Amino acid sequence: MTRSDRLITSCPIGCGAHFTVSSIELPEGPLLRCEDCGQLVSQISESAYLASMQAFDRPEFDLPSARAAERRMAVAARRLTRLCSLLNKQAGQVRVLDVGCSRGDLVAAATMLGFDADGVEPAPHIAEAARQAGRRVHTGRLEDQGFADGSFDAVTLFEVIEHVTDPIPLLVEVRRILSPGGILLLSTGNGASWTAELLRERWDYFQIRVDAGHVSFFNPRSVALLAQRTGFSVADQHTSRVRILDKGQAPAPVYLLAKLAAELLNVPARLMGKGHDMLVYLRRQEP
Length: 287
What we know:
The protein has a single domain, classed as Rossmann fold, CATH 3.40.50. Helix content is 33%, strand content 21%. The chain contains eight helices and eleven strands. The longest helix has 22 residues, at 66-87. The radius of gyration is 19 Å and the shape is globular.
């Protein structure tokens, strides 16, 4: 594939540095790595990327089981509680916007917890399904909504930014609609994790046929640089979880041993920023 065919041709963090070819081989070609910030990007073409993104507008997309719905609620409660702590506000004092909200599960959870919650979802059928479920969800991109300056105390981007080819304009818009001192909470995979180093191309997070639209892979340094370049500071950041093998990649006894070893690595991974789940709270900075 030539450079002109690639969806991403320069570092999404705005480094201006050259890409080097990584040793992580994917069907689209090896992942490319920014020489400055370490950001990994896919060599996928625009047409293949757009085709993969159609997966998000299927009627059956992201329908959780009862158990999964309970787990999502528990995770949302923990994250939103930490958000309130950073804002020094109670839930009832916080207006939150979930960007890329899918069916609006976080919007529903936040509303149940007393937040004033909205969502934005670009996939029209899924956004309509969210509204039919009684969730306050707007259709389209964030940049098209026309929210007033300082409309929200907090904005969330859960498993969204890895789909975005140019995150700088998105974060600039988020900063605009946040009130002074407001918090952007984002979650994404850690491309510098032990999981990425161990599984490499076997990590499903890198595989667009498994995780549609995943084209840009962050790490703690690239997130910090992105924050700095868009008017944020890092208020809190941590990583968690390690994976050594996936089911089906080894006999059951070997897989169980690998799973136990991964559990033992969770604490050092968190301490060293090497877990594959990355959660970052960014605070809006003033000029």
